[in-house]
Design brief:
About 5% of the residues have low confidence. By secondary structure, the chain is mostly helical. It is built from 13 helices and four strands. A hairpin with a 7-residue loop joins strand 3 and strand 4. It is globular and about 75 Å long. The strands form two sheets. The protein has a two-stranded antiparallel ribbon. It has a two-stranded antiparallel sheet with strand order 3-4. The longest helix is centred in the N-terminal third of the chain and has 24 residues. Helix 6 packs antiparallel against helix 8 and helix 10 crosses helix 11.
Amino acid sequence: MHPIHRLLDPHFKDTLHINALARGMFLNAGGILERTLFTGEFSMRLSSELYKQWRFEEQALPEDLVKRGMAVEDKQTSPAGVKVIVEDYPYANDGIEIWVAIETWVKDYCNIFYTPNYDVKEDEEIQAWWFEIRNEGHGERKEEGWYDLNTLEDLIKALTTIIWITSGLHAAVNFGQYAYAGWPPNRPMLLRKFIPKQDTKESKEEEDNQEKFMAEMMPEKFEMEFVIAVMDLLSRHTSDEVYLGQRPPENTWEEREDVNNKFKEFRDRLGEIDKNIKERNKKSELMNRWGNAKIPYKLLDPDPPTAEALSKEEDKPEKMGITGMGIPNSISI
């Protein structure tokens, strides 16, 4: 088995399955997204327009932060090559630590199987894999936003980006949905009335009876209940989740002590990040880590949820509760 296949395998657990379900239930015509979002039948058309701007090279966290003006290049002092310029930006500050940990692990792993001056262009399997990703997976975008895998450095960057997308990025955007949108007035998916302009008849009605005006503006009760159920589903970890820093039994390297030693270093590094995040969450001056709801930002805390997070129901299998923390290896929900 190719060593890169073995490295990436845990990061695609259940992904094909969840993608198939998404196409059949969420993204299809008349599916969940079209029923719940105010964009309705235009939802996928808007997504298609946004995809025209998608570039693989910008999916790396450092490049993403620089593009959005949240970081500046700093190859001299920062392990990630960028410096976050907003101190109270939890996603960036926690994420960049996770990124560096993943990148270090990938680099250590690749250095075991490849020499520093290895010509990746000569690896037929890697080149065929990369060609398929560009030309089959992203045929419409194959000409823009990609780099050739000519050097070991190129390969490490691509692998780090893929693992970041399937782990840290997905955890950050997915597992906080119930906490944010589980109370519909906080994040309604659609409104039945426009927000009134100032000094109009509607704005006066709002001033006279805000509660009534808001109730008329919100979606119907069934629509809100449906969205709550969807947010609940999407925000749950599965009971057989495998988290960053863990390996499934079938993907251990019993015959490679050098790989196991480097993976232990990676796991220890994640443990240090867990402590760093918990310390940052204690700082009262970092208001964005708590918000008005006083919920600490733990979406990128790599500490896996404990057994206490399991909810048990009679005659039903165990299922993982909504924990808002822990970074799964793969996109499985």
